[in-house]
């Protein structure tokens, strides 16, 4: 499946002609065409993509007509691949390494990356840029010389891509490719967009429960939104030993799916008329939940989550991201008197290069269950089918194989 060492060495230092699925216009089907991928520059690696998976953030930017949406672009940011070649000043990666690219930079050197308290790199601030991280240029062109834009520092909807070493994490080769790609984002959180912030699925969702919230055994958890993020949060809460996991959604079809991820109770938010959902939750939990996760990306739901978070020690964790400019409203007296905590969780608070290997170990130890996240698998030539499945709500995670 992966290229051999001899095959990799034949292409090192040379431009590679390969296939890519190019988004040329907002909302229109991707076009599979031949592209040219330049060799990696200093502190970069070129990766042969084995498989990639589709996240809602890809769909969001695919539909986005205004910046940070831009075209033509190679989308995709959840992937597993093999390092084909390395540029200058690359020390920790070599040809043949099994890796996953991750949208969140981790330079391992700055004050934030060396601290256990933060995963926001201060050397390379996260932003939705159409260019490479260090020099603001592209490594993709068409055979006619047209520049193609990058996406989230990854662009995995191509047989080869170039990624900065700050966005690459080694992964244990024992993890199957069609599961390894989920650690790139999918095991994190589902994506919502802001002009400067984007979150991804599974690692973020599991990480939000395990690391940001540090959910305790026997606690009560409420999850607003049972999409990819919410179900990943449920998986994390299950691993932590939460005794009650309440899922809130408007789609009742999500309730049966939620059971597979440890959800114990369900609330159809459309069935209570004008009664606030926070009141429903407070009545169900005798005063509020220990942990409330907002996984949709709506300010009103953040406020509802905070309202049904238990006074004194309750935590509200914001995982979804609302539209640019959205604001939250809380009474100052409530902040002072009720002793609750509200916090954000970018990529689940995980540090890609140190925390992802820990999640991988949980998977290899059969503690973290990934199989239930993958509902479909398709070949690269059918990538638009993956988009259709996700847009129609028929897929939780669709893995796209480059060579099948």
Structural notes for this entry:
By secondary structure, the protein is α/β, with parallel strands linked by helices. The chain has a domain at 202-348: 3-Layer(aba) Sandwich (Rossmann fold). The chain has eleven helices and 18 strands. The chain has helices at 5-11, 56-63, 177-180, 202-212, 228-240, 254-259, 277-285, 299-307, 332-338, 352-364, 383-391; strands at 16-22, 31-37, 44-53, 78-86, 98-101, 140-142, 147-148, 160-164, 168-170, 186-188, 220-224, 244-249, 265-268, 291-294, 315-318, 341-344, 376-379, 398-401. The strands form three sheets. Strands 3, 4, 5, 8, 9, 17 and 18 form a seven-stranded mixed sheet that branches. Strands 13-12-11-14-15-16 form a six-stranded parallel sheet, sandwiched between helices. Helix 7 (277-285) runs parallel beside helix 8. The radius of gyration is 21 Å and the shape is globular. The N and C termini lie close together (9 Å). 50% of the residues are buried.
In short:
The chain has 11 helices and 18 strands. It is an alpha/beta fold and 404 residues long.
């Amino acid at each position: 499946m992966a290229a051999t060492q001899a095959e990799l060495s034949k292409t090192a230092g040379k431009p590679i002609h390969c296939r890519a699925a190019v988004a040329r216009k907002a909302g229109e089907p991707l076009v599979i065409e031949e592209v040219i991928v330049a060799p990696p520059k200093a502190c970069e690696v070129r990766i042969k993509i084995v498989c990639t998976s589709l996240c809602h953030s890809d769909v969001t930017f695919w539909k986005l007509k205004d910046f940070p949406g831009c075209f033509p672009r190679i989308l995709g940011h959840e992937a597993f691949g093999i390092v084909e070649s390395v540029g200058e000043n690359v020390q920790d990666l070599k040809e043949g390494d099994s890796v996953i690219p991750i949208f969140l930079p981790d330079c391992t050197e700055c004050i934030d990356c060396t601290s256990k308290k933060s995963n926001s790199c201060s050397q390379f601030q996260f932003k939705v840029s159409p260019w490479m991280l260090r020099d603001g240029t592209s490594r993709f062109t068409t055979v006619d010389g047209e520049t193609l834009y990058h996406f989230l520092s990854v662009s995995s909807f191509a047989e080869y891509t170039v990624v900065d070493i700050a966005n690459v994490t080694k992964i244990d080769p024992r993890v199957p490719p069609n599961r390894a790609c989920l650690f790139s984002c999918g095991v994190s959180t589902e994506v919502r967009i802001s002009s400067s912030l984007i979150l991804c699925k599974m690692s973020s969702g599991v990480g939000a429960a395990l690391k940001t919230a540090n959910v305790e055994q026997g606690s009560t958890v409420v999850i607003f939104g049972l999409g990819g993020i919410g179900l990943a949060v449920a998986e994390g809460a299950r691993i932590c030993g939460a005794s009650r996991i309440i899922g809130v959604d408007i789609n009742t079809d999500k309730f049966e799916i939620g059971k597979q991820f440890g959800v114990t109770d369900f609330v159809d938010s459309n069935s209570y008329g004008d009664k606030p959902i926070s009141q429903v939750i407070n009545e169900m939990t005798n005063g509020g939940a220990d942990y409330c996760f907002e996984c949709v990306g709506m300010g009103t739901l953040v406020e509802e989550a905070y309202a049904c978070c238990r006074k004194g020690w309750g935590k509200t964790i914001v995982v979804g991201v609302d539209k640019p400019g959205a604001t939250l409203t809380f009474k100052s007296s409530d902040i002072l008197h009720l002793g609750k905590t509200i916090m954000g969780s970018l990529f689940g608070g995980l540090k890609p290069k140190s925390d992802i290997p820990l999640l991988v170990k949980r998977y290899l130890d059969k503690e973290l269950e990934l199989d239930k996240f993958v509902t479909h698998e398709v070949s690269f030539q059918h990538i638009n089918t993956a988009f259709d499945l996700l847009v129609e709500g028929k897929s939780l995670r669709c893995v796209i194989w480059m060579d099948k």
